[in-house]
TrEMBL record:
UniProt name for this protein: PLP-dependent transferase
Keyword field: Pyridoxal phosphate, Transferase
Any one biological process term the GO annotation gives: cysteine biosynthetic process via cystathionine
KW Transferase (keyword) present: yes
Family per record: Belongs to the trans-sulfuration enzymes family.
Cofactor: pyridoxal 5'-phosphate
Top-level division of the source organism's lineage: Bacteria
GO molecular function: cystathionine gamma-lyase activity; cystathionine gamma-synthase activity; pyridoxal phosphate binding
GO CC annotation: cytoplasm
A Pfam family reported for this protein in Swiss-Prot or TrEMBL: Cys_Met_Meta_PP
Lineage: Bacteria, Pseudomonadati, Pseudomonadota, Alphaproteobacteria, Parvularculales
Record-linked InterPro entries: Cys/Met-Metab_PyrdxlP-dep_enz, Cys_met_metab_PP, PyrdxlP-dep_Trfase, PyrdxlP-dep_Trfase_major, PyrdxlP-dep_Trfase_small
Length: 387
């Protein structure tokens, strides 16, 4: 990479006006699965679409530049990107992961480990002693996720990266919750950054995808090689849609975060709500680390209702906020992690991670703040009425 460009400029100018056939300003969609050769002895830049396509390359470059990566792979989903990173481990190697990671990640690692593909150790990586113990076991790969989903615990990425380097561990950080606008794991010393582009990056809840991007050019090339080898690369059309969606990432993240700050404050001040978990709260136990590591608190809020109030009653009072999984889209969504996003985790693991049956997770969208406030208040009134 040459000079470091502003993220807003990267978003607005990636792959713009690069079409040499017709001079299209917006990148054209290319759906061809195969490409012609000029000479049978010389492999062209594009040969077969599983390996590379112009649309997928455009998205990979844009995301790599946003994260300060040398390159990597755009995959068919976020989980495919995480799974791709496991090419680095062999049977007998140890993988360390947070005990309260994304439910699908927890399931993926647990079931791969059960097949003997690696040893697995779940730890509370937000706890200094537990973190030191985990790295003392010299894992081959440490999977990091911060803020944690859904409990908003913060892992110190720079401290993990430092301990990992001393232990010879490769660090893979899932940056889905904050997006490259609010956190830069590679700048903090991590080796690979992973995204579910289904969330903030795509931003429009209409395309599933993922990316794994590495700072080291050799590792970036290996990720791309394995993505082609295993066939987990993302579709061209999906890459085109995701690049279209990411254009507005900076303004979306800023607007959603502004609303989330005010909604979190409202929930904290309401006596019908307890245990609001939001990285922007003045009461967040890790606020110094948040200030050091994140450029902002983001737009995800988790909370529980006061004892005696039922989640069902609250949800039945919502008109604007929809009950659905996923996050980071233009529309506000609420979910109950215990029975929805994290149902793939075994119950004992959910309880140990602190995911209570009454925990709610809100992804704040782009609606008018006052409308969201009155919707949440309506839900709270309904919960009271049904108590
Ligand atoms: C959604 C999500 C994933 C999985 O991504 P998919 O695109 O659904 O496969 C991984 N990590 C986090 C933090 C997520 O929110």
């Amino acid at each position: 990479m040459t000079e470091k460009r502003s993220k807003r400029t990267i978003l607005a100018s990636s792959a713009v006006a690069e079409d040499r056939a017709f001079g299209s300003v917006a990148p054209p969609i290319g759906l061809s699965t195969t490409f012609t050769w000029d000479d049978h002895r010389e492999k062209p830049g594009y040969d077969y679409a599983r390996r590379a396509t112009p649309n997928r390359d455009q998205l990979t470059s844009c995301l790599a530049e946003l994260e300060g990566a040398a390159g990597g792979a755009v995959t068919s989903s976020g989980l495919a990107a995480l799974d791709l990173c496991l090419f680095m481990v062999s049977p007998g190697d140890l993988v360390v992961a947070p005990h309260d990671c994304y439910g699908g990640t927890h399931r993926l690692l647990t079931h791969r480990a059960r097949r003997g593909q690696f040893e697995l150790h779940f730890a509370d990586l937000t706890d200094e002693a537990a973190r030191r113990d985990a790295f003392a076991r010299r894992p081959k790969l440490a999977y990091l996720e911060t803020p944690s989903n859904p409990l908003m615990r913060i892992t110190d990425l720079a401290a993990c990266a430092k301990e990992a380097r001393a232990a010879g561990t490769v660090t893979v950080a899932d940056n889905t919750f904050l997006s490259p606008m609010l956190q830069s794991p590679l700048e903090l010393g991590c080796d690979v950054v992973v995204h579910s582009t289904t969330k903030f990056i795509g931003g429009h809840s209409d395309v599933v995808g993922g990316a794994a991007l590495a700072k080291d050019p050799g590792l970036a090339e290996e990720l791309a090689w394995w993505a082609n080898c295993t066939g987990v690369t993302g579709a061209s059309y999906d890459s085109w849609l995701t690049l279209r969606g990411v254009r507005t990432l900076a303004v979306r993240v800023e607007a959603q975060q502004r609303t989330a700050r005010n909604l979190a404050r409202m929930l904290e001040d309401d006596e019908r709500v307890r245990a609001v978990r939001y990285p922007g709260s003045v009461s967040h136990p890790q606020k110094n680390l948040i200030a050091r590591q994140q450029k902002g608190p983001g737009s995800m809020i988790s909370f529980e209702l006061r004892d005696g109030l039922e989640v069902g009653g609250f949800l039945s009072g919502l008109k604007l906020v929809n009950l659905a999984e996923s996050l980071g889209g233009f529309e506000s969504l609420i979910c109950v992690p215990d029975t929805m996003t994290h149902a793939g985790m075994e119950e004992a693991a959910r309880r140990e991670a602190g995911i209570a049956p009454g925990l709610l997770r809100l992804s704040v969208g782009l609606e008018e703040e006052e409308d969201l406030m009155s919707d949440l208040k309506h839900g709270l009134r309904q919960a009271e009425a049904m108590a």
